[in-house]
Amino acid sequence: MTDTVIDQQALLRPHAEQQYAHELAALARLDDRPRPPSWQLSPWAVVTYLLGGELPDGTAIAPKYVGPRRLMEVAVATLATDRALLLLGVPGTAKTWVSEHLAAAISGSSTRLVQGTAGTAEEAIRYGWNYARLLAEGPSADALVPSPIMTAMRDGAIARVEELTRIPADVQDALITVLSEKTLPVPELTLEVQAAKGFNVIATANDRDRGVNDLSSALRRRFNTVVLPLPASEEDEVSIVARRVADLGAALELPAVPAAAEEIRRVVTVFRELRSGATADGRTRLKSPSGTLSTAEAISVVTNGLALSAHFGDGVLRASDIAAGILGAVVKDPVADSQVWTEYLEAVVRDRPDWSDFYRACREVAG
Questions:
Q1: What's the confidence (pLDDT) of residue 259?
Q2: Which of the two residues, 92 and 22, has the higher pLDDT score?
Q3: Is the pLDDT of residue 44 over 70?
Q4: How far apart (Å, rounded) are the C-alpha atoms in residues 266 and 66?
Q5: Domains of the chain: which residue ranges?
């Protein structure tokens, strides 16, 4: 047990089932509600794990998702049926985060994963071959290399497909037979793998980035779609950023930086105003940059600022520590976005009484 703890502490990013093992164990111990076949927890306990709360024995469950409870209930209920789940939203709406935690809570493992890219081949969804054995022995079960999808079908577990719309359309459609027939044929061996009870698929996708391949109507019908919105309020977004920054800082073993709340709120305010195209009070209309300015990018900006402050500053997160990160997040197009950012600085930031340090820092970084 000691060795396991040491190994996990040395990991840069533990899987959800590793990082929150004590919460999952406490929920499993107290969970007396009906569980679908092969599920580690009941649907109620899975939602509790995602949204947080306090158990009767005093165990605190940290919230993994901040947003409408009904969305998580719909997502979990979908996975308890024969419908696959598609988490849809703009970048930074916690699609991957929710997908990982759903798989960890339901199946005890989030690692049956296909990462979608433009180069993802059909073998990643169906199966591949150990070509050395294939040439030596011919097609055989020993030469078969199962995909994460096939493994999940055999185990009766949740498989994850990240960035589904980045996968080429003809490869995407390899999922149709799996999702409709719950079987994966292997014609070379004249056999098929049938899904055990508990198998399902969680896919994530967004339709805002470049390089998106739309889902065919046949494939989209196999999914129940849950759209994850951006945080509804500034307070929610500040809370999400602060919590994730604290987790990342601990994982990266960054020195503790006090009084970061003010700069976190400033980053969130900038991102929300530029996203919405208006200042928080609604008085000034703004141009929006080409990027999405997601919550995930805000987390990255603040985490980078913490590293600068801890290693090259005075240990207090200041405007100068976050200015370069914000500039990099906003200005994706060197021409159009630079103009948007300059107008925002001059029309909004310069006139805010308590933002003079931020204005100076941003002007210095922009040159």
A1: 62
A2: 22
A3: yes
A4: 20
A5: 2-227, 234-366
2-227 has which fold? Rossmann fold (3.40.50)
Residue 1 pLDDT: 38
Length of the chain as a residue count: 367
Quick one: tokens of 347? Answer: 């029309």
Does residue 23 contact residue 57 with C-beta atoms inside 8 Å?
no
One-character DSSP codes across 76-139: HHHHTTT-EEEEE-STTSSHHHHHHHHHHHHHS----EEE--TT--GGGTSEEE-HHHHHHH-S
* Neighbour-count burial of 34, counting CB atoms closer than 10 A to its CB (0-12 exposed, 13-18 middle, 19+ buried): exposed
Continuous H helices in the chain: 2-9, 16-19, 21-30, 43-51, 69-79, 95-107, 131-137, 148-155, 169-172, 175-181, 217-220, 234-251, 261-276, 295-312, 319-330, 336-347, 356-366
How far is residue 121 from each of residues 117, 127, 154, 169, 184, measured CA to CA in Å? 9, 10, 21, 11, 16
- CA distances from residue 105 to 49, 161, 331 in whole angstroms, order as listed: 7, 17, 38
Contact 43, 75 (CB under 8 A): no
Enter the pTM of the model. Answer: 0.88
The whole-number average pLDDT for the span 96-119 is: 96
